[in-house]
């Protein structure tokens, strides 16, 4: 019964247009990124897929793409109803904001993308996150968000961290320097994971607090 009573997003023509634009941008960016990963001239396709699957950026942009696509195309399906839940949309908004924050603070200085890579970088780390937060604000009854939400949303990045550590132990590859157990050791990596987890909880609390402050 709780899933029936849970607050749901409210779509308008304006939010649907924004959702469609986000969906097109997110799916296009993900598809192009995947193709660029899988089709190097001398690449091992299976290995490149393993590498691609490790990035939180791709996971979360895929979640954004689903969160805007399913309520548009299949709103009454089980997945569509799931992504119409206000708490789910907010959890995705917090997660994609974390993508932007971590990239800006920890990763951006490590490389200088050019050409199509620069466009993908802007889309995946800045434009799509900003657009989805705007979508979240438009459709979500933010005044009804629960303070317990951030704890439940934490399951997603925690699950990702567990996946990356297990996968890294099996393959020896890690997607981000701050998660590289081979280079930094488990103690440092787990400390980094814990710090990012705390940042996620604080970020989630900011989203809830702003929503409840407006009372909308």
Automatic annotation (TrEMBL):
InterPro entries: Pr6Pr-like (IPR049713). The chain crosses the membrane at residues 18-39, 45-74, 86-106, 118-139, 151-170, 190-210. Keywords: Membrane, Transmembrane, Transmembrane helix. It comes from the Archaea. NCBIfam families: Pr6Pr. This is Pr6Pr family membrane protein.
């Amino acid at each position: 019964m709780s899933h029936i009573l849970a607050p749901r997003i409210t779509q308008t023509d304006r939010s649907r247009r924004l959702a469609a634009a986000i969906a097109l941008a997110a799916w296009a960016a993900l598809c192009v990124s995947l193709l660029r990963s899988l089709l190097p001239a001398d690449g091992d396709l299976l290995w490149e897929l393993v590498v691609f699957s490790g990035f939180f950026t791709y996971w979360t942009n895929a979640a954004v793409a689903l969160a805007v696509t399913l309520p548009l195309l299949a709103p009454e399906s089980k997945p569509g109803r799931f992504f119409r839940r206000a708490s789910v949309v907010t959890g995705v908004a917090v997660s994609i904001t974390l993508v932007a924050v971590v990239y800006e603070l920890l990763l951006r200085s490590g490389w200088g993308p050019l050409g199509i890579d620069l466009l993908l970088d802007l889309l995946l780390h800045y434009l799509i996150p900003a657009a989805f937060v705007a979508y979240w604000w438009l459709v979500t009854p933010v005044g009804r968000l629960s303070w317990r939400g951030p704890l439940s949303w934490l399951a997603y990045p925690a699950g990702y961290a567990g996946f990356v550590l297990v996968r890294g132990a099996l393959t020896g590859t890690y997607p981000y320097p701050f998660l590289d157990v081979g280079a930094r050791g488990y103690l440092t990596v787990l400390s980094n994971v814990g710090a990012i987890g705390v940042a996620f909880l604080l970020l989630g609390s900011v989203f809830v607090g702003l929503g409840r402050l407006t009372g909308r």
